[in-house]
Amino acid sequence: MNKPDPHQISSVAELEALYGEVGTASVRKEVDYLHAHYQALIKASTFAVLATSGPDGLDASPRGDPAGFIQIADDKTLLLADRRGNNRIDSLRNIITDPRVALLFLIPGLGETLRVNGQASISIAPELLQRFAINEKAPRSVLVIHVDTVFFQCSRAVLRAGLWDPAHHVEKKDLPTAGTILAALTQQEIDGRQYDEELPQRLKTTLY
């Protein structure tokens, strides 16, 4: 039997001894409702990551739309349209068995992010679907998220990443395309060049 790694942290007590006490601000910034200032950040956000957990594992799904795309029903409830995608519905499958969700909001140009933890349900109420219609196309479902905790995250990670700095933007030509990846993973069963050629128009016509 392999000996335990002497450098592995395996208890909360070890973690707390390593990192020290939590600062007052880090504790006080967490609340169990959508404060007006937190609502302002949500209304300005154009992108969020939705995290879920289920019997088959974890999922982190990108969500994006014009600013205010995740609507505030009240100070304990968020509404998120499930826009057209690849029909894997990994997030929705997870929510069916485990309603716990987490959201990480990004605001273009801002270093601070916002984190929301809560519990979600999936609604197909006609009035909700129409509320989120864009170009006369309604989503198939809307997530109703009951908020448990909310807090902002400081800007260190975004600053370290240079996320909004154009000087850090990567040239597309320097990375494999979606078609290149699919062709390699399917042993050329999917024609990568054709996939890439058709993708821009497909995205344009299937955005909503």
TrEMBL record:
It holds the Pfam family PNPOx_N. Gene3D superfamilies: Electron Transport, Fmn-binding Protein, Chain A. Residues 35-154 form the Pyridoxamine 5'-phosphate oxidase N-terminal domain. This is Pyridoxamine 5'-phosphate oxidase N-terminal domain-containing protein. It comes from Undibacterium terreum.
